[in-house]
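ingest -> validate -> predict -> emit
validate: passed (alphabet ok, no gaps, 43 aa)
predict: started
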Amino acid sequence: MASHQCYGSRRLVTALEAQGIQVGRYRVRHLMRQAGLKPVWEA
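emit:
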């Protein structure tokens, strides 16, 4: 079950597409790295 507070590149792409913003997952991943953001892996 996904947390509503944790976003990875896939979930960000889905959220951005819902707002009408087209962006690739690898672009989002690159921008997350530049910003120092890391996805949270839940067990």
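The radius of gyration is 11 Å.
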